[in-house]
Amino acid sequence: QTCALPILTVEEGKKARTQLEKEIKQKEQELKQQKDELETLNREWQEKSSLLSEDAKMRKQQEFQEKILALRNAEISSQNEIKQKEAEATQKIAIKVAKIVDTLAKSKNLKVVFERNTSGLLYLENPIDLTDSVIVDYNKQNSNVASSSKVPSKK
Hints:
By secondary structure, the chain is mostly helical. Helix content is about 70%, strand content about 5%.
């Protein structure tokens, strides 16, 4: 027999996702503040540019370009950091899920278990869905992890 297993939603995963969303919002606010500061700086520079010498204009322009580049680098770094944290949380859960699926598959005498949304499987006669069983077992086995699980934030 074979079985289709869709993407799982376990308590530990929900908590990790919530924590990541908080971090994303915080980073977005920080980056928006930096963008606003750059826009203000640019307006001030534009207003005063006629009073500056060519050398001073070039220095201000170079400063501004360096700050824009630093902001872009910060945005990319922030995105990469979030992706890495998400991958780490997902991998940690996937390892635990694999053990649970192994146990359930053996107990139900299944020969193959598919993850429904990524297997490319389009049809299966009489599929058995282990999702609820896996989620319940996962949450039972990891209830202490889910209640204390927090993704550490880097500052």
